[in-house]
Amino acid sequence: MAEILKGAPVVAALNEEMAREVESLKSIGIVPTLAIVRVGEREDDIAYERGAMKRCEKVGVEVKQVLLPGDCSEDALISTLQDLNNNSKVHGVLLFRPLPKYMDDDRVRNTLSPEKDIDGITDLSLAGVFVGTNTGYAPCTAQACMEILDYYGIDLNGKKAVVVGRSLVVGKPAAMMLIGKNATVTVCHTRTVDMPAVCREGEILIVSAGRPKIMDKSYLAPGQTVIDVGIHVLVDGSMCGDVDFDAAEGIVGAVTPVPGGVGTVTTSVLVKHVVQAAKKVAS
Amino acid sequence: MAEILKGAPVVAALNEEMAREVESLKSIGIVPTLAIVRVGEREDDIAYERGAMKRCEKVGVEVKQVLLPGDCSEDALISTLQDLNNNSKVHGVLLFRPLPKYMDDDRVRNTLSPEKDIDGITDLSLAGVFVGTNTGYAPCTAQACMEILDYYGIDLNGKKAVVVGRSLVVGKPAAMMLIGKNATVTVCHTRTVDMPAVCREGEILIVSAGRPKIMDKSYLAPGQTVIDVGIHVLVDGSMCGDVDFDAAEGIVGAVTPVPGGVGTVTTSVLVKHVVQAAKKVAS
């Protein structure tokens, strides 16, 4: 049976580290603060926001909620972001996307200062991931995959890693971070021919396919470490990932569960980035 | 015997297209102009500069040489770049690197305006490659590989591509461009285990290993298309690439020669970017 790479201990370790950092920042008068900017009332956003607020509270990070109506103008959103850029009491800004369709996503996201871009949405944050500079922050979900691999001591040096998905939120940044850790990295996507065969070759699999249980036993091989980024709610109300967990459990060496895997660590990475941003201000 | 993917016809096609574009720009009073900034007298730089000037002349692009002494200060170089940013008659700037060791490479390269960064050295140009936006320009060498594949009608959709090397000049941007063309892309590097086996799996190989003839027959397989980015001068004065050309010719489906392959196309891509930059000013 595969080892289950639960998110909880990773979160606990990050919480402990962050609580200590926050305390030390507060002792010099800095209260690490996250602004959450939400346009409209999308349920997914509200759920994520609730989780982020709870996690922030846990370690002493302040949260400032900024809510804009679902039909707000692009300029109103831009000006909100500019105000937050100029607000020295705010260290990180989380902006929920996708934005309403009538907005210019490139213009809006690049309004945010990279130093407050704790979820890696600006071009300069993404360049940081690509180039390996220290500008901005990596997208939290991609980094959560790396935190899990790191926490469980999974060696990446010279290992074959396969990333399923080529998004800017997971696939591409995860590929860059894996290359940075000396893995040999293959990026698969919807146009990949015989994806099961490609995936079976991976010693580490990071799966962000966006389809429930799409990775069945044909994609899996003994000894693999599988990081499942997918989160889906099935009609019966139960949750699952992109990986068929039951199949994986009988085949691979280690696998993250859904729920209780990558998702929960993502929120902690968000908090970590806010604390890092506050530390940079302090230094 | 493998098909030899010579650079010359690619260059000829690009030259023809560029000459036409330049003529049309000149007819509205715009003279596409490249500034070449060179610090010191490194031989490689001088050779590349000579080639670039010749290619520019061929299609009617003006060149402005800016030469700084090998011991010039970082601030002097920065101020030179700022002047070029502000000079509306200059459309593209080529800055030779590596810079002298006492300079802050990140600071210097990011001084350049992305819209004049025709060799993809700024963070915003590189973000453009990573994100897929239209900011700045891709590194010319990486794009030269893609131009060759395109010119010779090599289909990338769903194909397995292997990139050897993870630099910002070739490996990483080439990987991103291949993913953009729907290839399944693997990035190899010095830490890759059993690189020959990984390379043999590729239907397309882009090789930027930086070592003469390192890719011998053990790395190659029938039917492959091999793009060789390496350029080395051997002790007898002859030139070779990273691929053992004689071995490749008997095994693979198609291979670029050295000299006369990627290198020559790179210069044309540089010119193309200058013309594109001038066209953006015109529109």
Description:
The structure is a homodimer of 283-residue chains. Chain A has helices spanning 8-27, 43-59, 74-86, 105-109, 123-131, 140-151, 171-180, 195-200, 245-251, 262-282; strands spanning 3-4, 33-39, 62-68, 92-95, 160-164, 184-188, 204-207, 225-228, 232-233, 239-240, 254-255. Chain A has 283 residues and is α/β, with parallel strands linked by helices. Chain A folds into 2 domains: 29-115, Leucine Dehydrogenase, chain A, domain 1 (Rossmann fold, 3-Layer(aba) Sandwich); 140-262, NAD(P)-binding Rossmann-like Domain (Rossmann fold), CATH 3.40.50.720. In chain A, α1 (8-27) packs parallel to α10 (262-282) and α6 (140-151) packs across α7 (171-180). The longest helix of chain A has 21 residues, at 262-282. The model of chain A has no long low-confidence stretch (mean pLDDT 97). The interface between A and B is medium-sized, with 32 and 32 residues.
Topology:
2 copies of one chain form a homodimer.
Chain A: E1 3-4, H1 8-27, E2 33-39, H2 43-59, E3 62-68, H3 74-86, E4 92-95, H4 105-109, H5 123-131, H6 140-151, E5 160-164, H7 171-180, E6 184-188, H8 195-200, E7 204-207, E8 225-228, E9 232-233, E10 239-240, H9 245-251, E11 254-255, H10 262-282
Parallel strand pairs in A: 1-11, 2-3, 2-4, 5-6, 5-7, 7-8, 8-11
Antiparallel strand pairs in A: 9-10
Helix pairs in contact in A: 1-10, 2-10, 6-7, 6-10
